[in-house]
Design a protein that fits this description.
Length: 500
């Protein structure tokens, strides 16, 4: 198991390393592309007097800063979780996206101010030469390339920072197209076309900034992602009807989901069954929300239970009660009487256990139609030591047991085994019955065989009969030698403890 955990850890580390490397490469490429575009747009815009190109260059200078911030953000986000950051460092990408939005907004304000000034002063002179068109077409080609690369990498690694970069670059591309249209307008005689194009670029910048702020602020404020919450809820609902969802919380951090769920299972389920139910819930949520971290809390169900399950839940809610069995419900008219056996630690005082019984009886008595409740207190069984000297001529006793079993059931018994103890021998025996026999009939037959063996073989302290379909194959169990100590458990140990 330790080796498996080491393999899983190594795989996770390797995956995280590859993811971080891929994001860093994309961020570096974005920095280089943004720098190239900034130089081309600003330089050409200043030489030709194009406000559209200057505004696009200002936006690209913001891209350089934003891409640099993203580069460092993805490096920090790739760090594993630690004591101060149990959910990891991925939200630094959301902070990075907000920083980019701020840079975009500031650039948009500058563009608007310059465009209004240009329009109010009469539009200005612009020389729309061929190389101006070459620069803007080259910028559009670069923008298309980096949008596609950033989107592909963001989807692959679920990176908010790279996704925001992709939106940013898409805005850049739209702005470049607007500048191209403005240059064409100037070329055909509409001198204000360049300033109008700059205003269009500003609108695009403000729209991109607003979207980034809205999306990333929702994540940082732990706003529940509605679609993810619904997917996880539906996945849990599709499981066994015995698993009931009480609470589900889902939060997102840089493309990864963290979910915690509270589910209830029938109170009679063992701990191992409750753990299996939690595993089912985790797998279901992980299938619905890949790359998610799921925590499940299991508690006993309190709603939608029949009377027996409610009685069991009440009994097991007492810390001292380790087992509750032989729950019997008596119906007499409109009223109901309940009886049950409670097993508590053998070293408990009678006063303490009596108080437990009173609390259980009071809680069950408060249920609808229950008129009275009776409990029987039993000590929890202790391990029973075997005594090899307590039995003589075991071969003859086994033959007698097999003969009695054949006489009583009409079937050949198998797996007959004697467990010698100080109180007498415990008999373990397997009896085949018809495959269509009801459980009630098989139990009655086993009880009759137990009574017959006790009556005819006084040296027997107890009998444990296992019934199985006659077509079943005898189980290959690991057998202990009859002199080995440490047998503990159910009916046999209960009888032996009582007789001792």
């Amino acid at each position: 198991m330790a080796g498996l955990h080491q393999v899983e850890k190594a795989t996770t580390v390797a995956s995280g390393t590859a993811e971080g490397s891929g994001k860093r490469r994309t961020a570096i490429a974005s920095i280089l592309a943004a720098t190239l575009l900034m130089v081309l747009k600003l330089g050409t815009g200043l030489v030709t007097g194009s406000l559209g190109l200057v505004s696009a260059g200002i936006e690209s200078s913001g891209d350089v800063v934003a891409a640099t911030v993203t580069f460092f953000a993805v490096r920090v986000a790739g760090r594993p979780a630690d004591r101060q950051h149990p959910y990891g460092h991925r939200r630094v990408e959301n902070l990075s996206a907000l920083a980019e939005a701020t840079i975009l907004f500031a650039g948009g304000v500058i563009v608007v101010v310059e465009a209004i000034d240009r329009l109010s002063s009469g539009g200005g002179m612009l020389s729309a030469t061929w190389y101006v068109f070459a620069v803007i077409l080259a910028a559009i080609a670069v923008d298309v390339t980096r949008v596609l690369v950033s989107l592909r990498t963001a989807r692959r690694y679920r990176s908010a920072a790279l996704r925001s970069n992709a939106f940013h670059f898409a805005g850049d591309m739209a702005g470049s197209v607007a500048v191209l249209i403005g240059l064409i307008a100037v070329r055909v005689g509409f001198e204000a076309g360049d300033a109008v194009a700059a205003l269009i670029v500003a609108v695009i910048i403000f729209a991109a900034a607003a979207r980034l702020i809205f999306e990333n602020a929702r994540v940082l404020m732990d706003t529940a992602p509605a679609a993810a919450h619904e997917s996880a809820r539906d996945a849990i609902a599709a499981l066994s009807p015995e698993i009931e969802l009480h609470r589900l919380r889902v939060r997102e951090s840089a493309g990864r989901y963290f979910a915690d769920a509270v589910v209830s299972v029938p109170p009679g389920r063992a701990v191992i069954e409750g753990h299996a139910a939690a595993d089912e819930v985790e797998r279901a949520v992980e299938m619905a929300l890949p790359n998610s971290d799921v925590v499940v809390h299991v508690e006993p169900r309190e709603r939608g239970l029949d009377l027996r399950d409610r009685v069991l839940a009440i009994a097991l809610s007492e810390p001292m009660v380790r087992e509750a069995h032989d729950i019997t419900i008596f119906e007499h008219g409109e009223q109901i009487s309940v009886s049950l056996h409670l097993k508590v630690p053998a070293d408990s005082s009678l006063q303490a256990t009596h108080a437990v019984a009173q609390r259980v009886e009071s809680a069950i008595g408060a249920l609808p139609r229950v008129s009275d409740v009776r409990t029987h207190l039993e000590p929890l069984e202790r391990p029973v030591a075997t005594d090899p000297s307590a039995i003589r001529d075991s071969g003859r006793v086994v033959e007698d047991i097999e003969a009695i079993a054949l006489e009583e059931t009409g079937a050949v018994a198998r797996d007959v085994r004697l467990m010698p103890t100080e109180a007498g021998s415990v008999v373990f025996i397997t009896v085949p019955v018809g495959a269509t026999t009801s459980l009630a009939h098989a139990h009655q037959m086993a009880s009759e065989l137990e009574e017959a063996l006790r009556a005819r073989l006084p040296e027997i302290a107890d009998v444990v009969v296992r019934t199985e379909p006659s077509t079943a194959v005898a189980p290959s169990a690991v057998r202990k030698e009859s002199g080995e100590p440490g047998v503990s458990g159910d009916k046999a140990s209960e009888t032996l403890n009582r007789r001792s």
